[in-house]
Each structure stands twice: as C-alpha cells, then as structure tokens.
Write a structure and sequence with these properties.
By secondary structure, the chain is α+β, with helices and mostly antiparallel strands. The chain is built from four helices and 13 strands. A five-stranded antiparallel sheet has the order 3-4-5-6-7, with no helix packed on it. It has a four-stranded antiparallel sheet with strand order 10-11-12-13, covered by helices on one side. A two-stranded antiparallel sheet has the order 1-2.
Length: 181
C-alpha cells in the first residue's frame, strides 16, 4: 500500500513485479482507482513511474520509503489489528488537536513519564494528567502531532509510535485494547 498524506489514507496496491519493474492497481473502496507502472530503485528505497487514473489522467510520480515496521503486512505493528492500531492513533491525534484531555486521560497506561516545563515527570493518575495537561500538551507538541501523518507509524519491542516518537502505544492484559505509554 501507499499513503496519501493529505487524507492520511492507506491505498492498497495489487499487481506484478518483474525484476525492478512493476505494474500495480490501486484500490479505493475495493474498486480500481488507478494503475501505476514504473521502476524500483533499491539503492534509495524509492519507486517512480506513471500513475494513470481510470479517467485517463496521467501523473508522473516518485515515492520514497518514509517508515517501515518490523512486522508483516498482516501484523504490521507486532500486536493487534493494523486497522484498529491506526484508528487508535487517529483518535489520539484528534483528541490532542481538540484538547480532549478526558478521553486522553482514560487511554493512558499509568504511570507515564512525560516532560513538564522541561523536566521529566511521572504522572500517576488520570486526575494528575488532567491537572498538568496544559504543560504536557504544549502548542509545539500539538503542532508536531497535527503535522504528523498516521501512515508514518513505526514499531519495535517498545510498541508503536508516530509523531517521531512523541506518542507511543502498546497493548496490555492480552486484550485488543491499546493504551498510550
């Protein structure tokens, strides 16, 4: 798949590889939206070619790998369902942008270490998080989250993150519920 960053949507691809050449269809709502053909450049982790819509418009494109995970296509982040993980990050992002501190406070695995006024601080409860919220979620933090793309999720043994690591999540209690860590 690839990501259309403007809308933060993953667009599935299906097709064929022949050496460094490819031919893919992209799908939106399970319908062919366009075809892509071109070449893979393994030296700089990019692909380039021509994107042709079903309405006969052609656009030259170049895509560069921005992030990758250690998981598989089916289990991209090493835990849980890919779509649920991405939906959880979207909810986190929306909650930070809208200052929904109540929702955020209910979706944190306490205690959590944060930076408050330049100092590492341990937040032990939801009440403590809400009280310190304006000093945790600063204008810069909010801007960094707003400018981050959900498609740029990275994962490793610590969990999954986006926003260049300013938000991390993981799953607990063996269930399908993620928490902000």
């Amino acid at each position: 798949d690839y990501c259309y960053k403007k809308y933060e949507n993953r667009i599935p691809l299906k097709g064929k590889l022949n050496g460094n050449s490819f031919f893919f269809y992209d799908f939106i709502k399970n319908k062919i939206n366009a075809k892509l053909n071109g070449k893979i450049n393994e030296e700089n982790n990019s692909i380039s070619g021509k994107w042709s819509s079903t309405k006969n418009s052609d656009i030259a494109f170049s895509l560069k790998l921005a992030s990758q995970t250690g998981g598989s296509l089916e289990n991209r982040y090493g835990f849980g369902d890919n779509e649920k993980t991405e939906a959880f990050f979207k909810k986190i992002k929306a909650s930070i942008v809208k200052d929904d501190k109540i929702w955020l406070s209910k979706n944190i695995k306490y205690p959590i270490n944060v930076t408050v006024s330049g100092k590492k601080t341990k937040i032990k409860t939801a009440k403590d998080f809400i009280a310190k919220y304006p000093k945790i979620i600063t204008a810069k933090y909010k801007s960094d989250i707003q400018n981050s793309c959900i498609c740029d999720i990275f994962s490793n043994w610590r969990g999954a993150m986006f926003g260049n690591g300013i938000v991390w999540i993981n799953q607990y209690d063996g269930d399908d519920n993620s928490k902000i860590t």
